[in-house]
């Protein structure tokens, strides 16, 4: 059960999260500042900070889906995923190095990315609608990050914090969905040659297309539908892995190929300065 949150509280929480990002200093959980279980208010906070980013000259290039694992949903006491915005300054090229200090407390996960060639305007989207709208799929890495100290998050915290978004990396070999079974695809995430995560398409809400249908319907109902050109990160195919300075990762997804990223060799800002110890 949720209680209504005031507009002033929404802006105060947005300020707190924005300040944490700007100063590289994680903040305490924000859930107690919003109404108990007020997910709508958390999305309002998310939108305030997205609008601020747009005013700085960035643009929304797509959406990410989070909390697609049933076990994580049970842990947070919810029965559906969440979503956040992908902005243009969050994109990292395949094989690039993420500079030290850009992230606070990063983790990494492998996903299927869908790039749309058509709009998805219907509040009751179907798998057929999504299949018609998708131009191609790519392997992807999402580097999640939290402005909340020590990842002490509940559903309200992560939604307000743009679904714990950080950066994302897309592979470079687009694959049309014709003849591709996203549900049965297998994923392996390797760090420095050592396997750190594995899974398959069905581990993502039963399949990446299911996740995309949920997102398309949810955003259309909210009046902000997915459009041609949007990137959709459909959700993790396996457990997240911690990312530390100097780490290199490669995700391999059957039928889609691979995607790589590395982290700069120096300590992340929060760890170097002891901000939340």
Mean pLDDT: 92
The quaternary structure here is single chain
The biggest beta sheet, please? Answer: 8 strands, mixed
Number of helices: 7
- Poorly predicted parts: 268-277
Could you tell me how far the N terminus lies from the C terminus, measured between alpha carbons in angstroms?
33 Å
Backbone shape: globular
Number of strands: 13
* Radius of gyration over C-alpha positions, nearest whole angstrom: 18 Å
Q: Helical proportion?
A: 25-40%
Give the topology string: H per helix, E per strand: HHEHEEEEHEHEEEHEEEEH
**Main structural class:** alpha+beta
Residue fraction in strands: 25-35%
Short description:
The protein is α+β, with helices and mostly antiparallel strands. It has 7 helices and 13 strands.
Describe the structure.
- Helix content is 26%, strand content 27%.
- The protein is α+β, with helices and mostly antiparallel strands and 277 residues long.
- The chain has helices at residues 7-23, 39-55, 70-76, 127-133, 155-160, 208-221, 269-273; strands at 60-66, 82-87, 91-92, 97-98, 107-116, 134-144, 167-170, 186-191, 194-200, 231-236, 241-242, 248-253, 257-263.
- The model is unreliable at 268-277 (pLDDT under 50).
- β8 (186-191) and β9 (194-200) form a beta hairpin.
- The chain has 7 helices and 13 strands.
- Strands 1, 2, 3, 5, 6, 7, 10 and 11 form an 8-stranded mixed sheet that branches. It has a 5-stranded mixed sheet with strand order 4-13-12-8-9, with no helix packed on it.
- The longest helix has 17 residues, at 7-23.
């Amino acid at each position: 059960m949720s209680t209504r949150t005031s507009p002033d509280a929404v802006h105060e929480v947005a300020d707190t999260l924005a300040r944490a990002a700007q100063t590289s200093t994680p903040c305490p959980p924000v859930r107690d500042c919003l109404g108990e279980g007020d997910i709508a208010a958390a999305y309002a906070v998310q939108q305030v900070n997205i609008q601020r980013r747009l005013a700085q000259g960035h643009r929304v290039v797509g959406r990410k889906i989070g909390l697609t694992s049933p076990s994580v949903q049970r842990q947070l006491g919810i029965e559906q995923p969440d979503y956040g915005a992908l902005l243009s300054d969050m994109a990292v090229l395949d094989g690039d190095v993420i500079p030290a200090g850009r992230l606070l407390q990063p983790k990494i996960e492998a996903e299927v990315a869908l790039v749309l060639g058509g709009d998805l305007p219907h509040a009751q989207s179907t798998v057929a609608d999504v299949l018609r709208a998708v131009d191609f799929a790519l392997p992807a890495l999402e580097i999640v990050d939290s402005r909340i100290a020590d990842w002490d998050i509940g559903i309200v915290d992560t939604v307000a914090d743009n679904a714990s978004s950080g950066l994302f990396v897309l592979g470079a070999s687009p694959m049309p969905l014709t003849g591709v079974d996203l549900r049965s695809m297998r994923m392996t995430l390797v760090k420095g040659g050592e396997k750190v995560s594995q899974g398959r398409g069905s581990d993502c809400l039963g399949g990446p297309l299911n996740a995309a249908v949920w997102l398309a319907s949810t955003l259309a109902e909210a009046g902000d539908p997915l459009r041609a050109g949007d990137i959709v990160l459909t959700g993790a195919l396996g457990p997240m892995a911690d990312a530390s300075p100097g780490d290199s990762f490669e995700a391999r997804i059957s039928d889609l190929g691979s995607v790589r990223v590395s982290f700069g060799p120096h300590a992340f800002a929060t760890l170097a300065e002891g901000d939340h110890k």
